[in-house]
Amino acid sequence: MTNTTVFPKDFLWGGATAANQMEGGFHEGNKGLNIADVLPGGKQRLRILAEPGFNFDIDTDKYTYPNHEAIDFYHRYKEDIALFAEMGFKVFRMSIAWTRIFPQGNELEPNEEGLAFYDRVFDELHKHGIEPVVTISHYEMPVNLVKEYGGWKSREVITFFERYAKAVLDRYKDKVKYWMTFNEINSGLVMPIMSLGFSIQPGEHKYQSVAQGLHHQFVASAKAVEYCHEVNPEAQIGCMIIYAPVYAFDSNPENVFYANQEARLFNNYCGDVMVRGAYPAFAKRFLKEQGVELEIEEGDLETIQKGKVDYIGFSYYMSRTEKAEKTEEEKAQGNMMSGVKNPFLQASDWGWEIDPLGLRIAMNDMYDRYQVPLFIVENGLGAYDKVEADGSVNDDYRIEYLRNHIQAMGEAIEDGVDLMGYTSWGCIDLVSASTGEYSKRYGFIYVDKHDDGSGTLERSRKKSFHWYKKVIASDGADL
Ligand code: BGP
């Protein structure tokens, strides 16, 4: 299919991953334990993420830990990078595991073995002409900081993060041009464990803890942004948020108003602080109405103002439909955010509603509001893949999903949005963040690894691999 949009020649096509979901080698090179290392897979993980009261006390006899071996990128990165290069990737989004650099999070000096590993990965990428796009913290907080300090609830963690961020910004200043601070920072509003490093306890004032944790992250992020600009003025550093446009279920003004409020809270609260450098008025009112008293120290607001990001990295998987009052039956199952079922949309096998037009809406909304370049750093379809007798995987459903989203993003470019690039999520099959499963696959590259931990870890090219290669080679014209 021919696309009418001509993507810019310097458009950053590629794929996205995160250290904890792909590296494995969880105790190699002096690495410490991070949050993902202690989360079991399947239903237990879903329960831990959804319900309050998790304490990171895990029964090691009862559970297996899918992120421990993951897909063994730690040992197989050369082979994987060669496959990315074969597809024509211009960029590769990855994250640095905090626990490889500071295993317990609070050491004074970085771990050389960890630093050397990423040197090797960046060198390998450059050998193939691929630029790394690096997330400094992607759901990988050291467990020690969770246990000893209560995660991001503690202000002290700002100092530890600053030390870590400076260590990697210094070390890789000549190797990395594109950075992001915290992955999906607004996920803390709905699922604090992964990004804020704590679970809400029964009876705890959720927004007091979450807003305070986010405030600490805003300050920490702003400090990293400022430092990044200092060590390499050529580098660009962004925030990373989940963006899901929120539709009103119908034209009832109550529902429209509710949807707008939800959209501002979920999509703009973090973006406004990190891109515009100040808390927006609606957030102040929201926090006041929730009875939240933020502890803001002298200098914090100046730090936030000085540490504005250069671009907005965002993930887009789904839109959300809202109604002020909803019954249990109306609720959308599976969508990570609450909301009601949208009768016009189909959903993935995990209930994530598929909405390519929503991506165009999201991009226009964001660009109208912020006027800074955007970068789609995650988008994709989690699906069950079937390996045929001849070893092939005919993932036409994935091709269709990506084609429709790339087309929508082309339309948004025609609308005038400044888009830096597109890295589809899980370009190689990896462990799912929300379920810890291998069977929820996103990749162009199939990895022989299964939910029970079995598999040869062998890599093979899916049908979508050849399709994406063609898309990149034609600058998005041949979809
Ligand atoms: C985002 C995370 C990723 C990734 C993706 C898909 O929220 O940033 O880490 O995993 O979603 O989600 P899942 O793996 O749960 O299907």
From TrEMBL:
GO cellular component entries: cytosol
GO annotation, biological process: carbohydrate catabolic process
Gene3D superfamilies: Glycosidases
Active site: residue positions: E378
InterPro entries xref list: GH, GH_1_N_CS, Glyco_hydro_1, Glyco_hydro_1_AS
Pfam families registered for this protein in UniProt: Glyco_hydro_1
Keywords from the UniProt entry: Glycosidase, Hydrolase
GO molecular function: beta-glucosidase activity
Similarity comment: family membership: Belongs to the glycosyl hydrolase 1 family.
PANTHER family documented for this protein: 6-PHOSPHO-BETA-GLUCOSIDASE ASCB-RELATED, GLYCOSYL HYDROLASE
Name used for this protein in its record: 6-phospho-beta-glucosidase
Taxonomic lineage from the root: Bacteria, Bacillati, Bacillota, Bacilli, Bacillales
